[in-house]
């Protein structure tokens, strides 16, 4: 599995990502986009990619595809690159690809066939979880 998307590696420092524009902060993350990103993935139209940074490092990136034609084209591309993926419930269009350092998810709505695709750094996600657990424990200890 590639450890990034469109030339941006997971865990990259936000200061090294060319063309990055800040959107907002949410839940301890800095959410950004790049105006230079293509809105096509193969033959599929996709939304602008959202880059989520934690502690200044790229934690995850995500984009969406609207409608069955675009969503299924993205899924076909992912399966061609990474294999069939793991599907826990065959009645749902949800697939996961797990590498040693990254997790890729494809989650398609059964009502409108829109899909959200997310690539996550497992090491940085683990650090964020540990930080969150430490903050929770610290808060509970102060009660």
UniProtKB/TrEMBL annotation:
Lineage: Bacteria, Pseudomonadati, Bacteroidota, Cytophagia, Cytophagales
Protein name stated in the entry: Uncharacterized protein
Organism: Hymenobacter busanensis
Highest taxon of the lineage: Bacteria
